[in-house]
Amino acid sequence: MNRDKIKALIALLDDPNDEVFSSVEHALLKEPVEIVPELEKAWEASLDGLFQSRVENIIHTIQLNDIHTELKNWLASPNKDLLYGAFLVCKYQYPEVSIIRLKEQLSELRKDIWLEMNEHLTFLEKIRIVNHVLFDIHKFSRNTSRYLAPENNYICEVLNTHKGNPLSVSVIYSILCRELGMPVYGVNLPKNFILAFIDETAINDNEQLADETAVLFYINPINKGAVLGRKEIEYFVKQQKLQPKEEFFLPCDNVTIIKRMFNNLSFGYDSNGEESKKEEIQKLLALFDEQ
Fold first, then answer.
1. What is the pTM of this model?
2. Which domain, by its residues, includes 41?
3. Does 186 map to a domain?
4. Does 100 reside within a domain?
5. Which of 82, 84, 226, 266 could form a disulfide with 281 if both were Cys (CB 3.0 to 4.6 A apart)?
6. CB of 48 within 8 A of CB of 264?
7. CB 151 within 8 A of CB 93
8. Tens of pLDDT along 112-128?
9. Mind listing the pLDDT tens digit for each residue in 2-56?
């Protein structure tokens, strides 16, 4: 990044000539996200409303382009790490979010769980400890007062407030369990999102189940980690008048989880009447259809 060149371009953003501005904007939008601090400094130093508005729009577009590129790279990556995918979702609303800070917050929760564990516990006993730490001690719960709010899908926000929706709480739960050596995976159940505790001997190298009977039990994190059997899921599907599908009972991949997060955001912003944000999310969702 040529800092002098960037500063010179920024200085021209208040030019009243539309052609000059268009040319400068085009040049700045080709630069990497690292130029944002320079743009922010210029915004703070100016009292010109037009200049500030132009800078704000350029910053937003650069940051959106950066998420687009990172998400595309994540979708093309071999492992598609769940935490990093959720981090990219956060970056849409919180561009300054830190993956290091997210890991630190998760590490604190993981430590609290680990201190209660021992090697003689059964799977169910281990899950009861996870539930106790997350829901009794740290009070994670459903955001009942603002259930459709977009922030319920940003795990950076959920880790701060301890309130979220079934998907975000399940993502945090799954990440913690898997870091502690427990094979707990998401299940893309409509109108809810739950987890499945898997017999890890039945998981192949691509983290796909060799046999659907490998699901030992289900977990409903939004209901304080209640343990469920297949019959309870079947009853829920019937109660919600859903057409039964085997995918409602089997673990889904991380791409499905992150795509659902973005879909939730699109619906949330649409409900709030934030059409421009909905359109931006739809453009990010289009990347999933290219896979």
1. 0.91
2. 3-76
3. yes
4. yes
5. 266
6. no
7. yes
8. 999 999 889 999 999 99
9. 777 888 888 888 878 888 888 888 889 888 888 998 899 888 888 888 888 999 9
